[in-house]
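Batch 3, record 17
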Amino acid sequence: DAGVIQSPRHEVTEMGQEVTLRCKPISGHDYLFWYRQTMMRGLELLIYFNNNVPIDDSGMPEDRFSAKMPNASFSTLKIQPSEPRDSAVYFCASSSFPGREQYFGPGTRLTVT
Amino acid sequence: AQKVTQAQTEISVVEKEDVTLDCVYETRDTTYYLFWYKQPPSGELVFLIRRNSFDEQNEISGRYSWNFQKSTSSFNFTITASQVVDSAVYFCALSPNSGGYQKVTFGTGTKLQVIP
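Prediction for the assembled complex:
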């Protein structure tokens, strides 16, 4: 299996622009997670899906953030409008079962200027 | 509330030395999972081990070993005969039953530098 795939790997954008991050989970994994990693706050869970349905989005920082999973093999995390404080590495991860290990993608390094 | 504490922010060792990374967790759940992940300089997080709260057996995998002690809420990770390739940030994580096992809380990580 190719593992969790994320795109783009790097994104540089200007404040106020819309940013869309993409993720393809491992085939057969029913759970998909979005995390944000920063020096100040470490790794934070933003939202997770089970069978394409958002289960818990309590970690989404603001209404500017939204996530969708239109099918089992694709998810997006959108930030609109972006702000400099959104600069971070965003990871997507998937797992097969509750309590199982999560497999992480390579991350998207977002820089908002 | 769930909490994972990795008190060691950075550790430097000389190659071939043994090193232990500490992890202390807090949860009111009686059922939970504990994990260790490795984040090498390339950036991706790599799963190392998963432990069920009911299983306190220590585990060894090659140069890696883990010591789980429920009485002290600790899940420490030891690397024996460290190598330069072990240089990375290591994260301990907690996955409690109350979050459906899906709401994972990560520690702040311990950065390990192995000097040749």
